[in-house]
Design a protein that fits this description.
- The chain is built from five helices and five strands.
- The strands form two sheets. A three-stranded antiparallel beta sheet has the order 1-5-4. A two-stranded antiparallel sheet has the order 2-3.
- The chain is an alpha+beta fold.
- It has one domain: Ribosomal Protein L22, Chain A (Alpha-Beta Complex).
Length: 116
Amino acid sequence: MIVGVGIDVVDVDRFVESLTRTPGLRERLFTPAEAALPPASLAARFAAKEAIAKALGAPAGLAWHDAEVVKEDSGRPRFVLSGTVAASAEALGARDVHLSLSHDAGIASAIVVLEG
């Protein structure tokens, strides 16, 4: 059963401008492993974090680092949830989290489906 769906789209250039304009934003939004990635990948991961928040119903108090996007050996992205995000997913009854990322033509996007 689907218990949540979220989608987000990010303009890559605008996102990079935000990272440049706001010192510390990269570290506040991303884990060290994520922060080392190129701009389009960062924008897609930001979209993923926004999409999972939407899929969870945007509860207050979610921590950005509690939804880390990692890549499987196959290249498939997936979340590693912890802390506030894991607790929100559990409260919603989400057992599986499906994630799709894309970035092309200056746009990054992410879709999240929570399955109970």
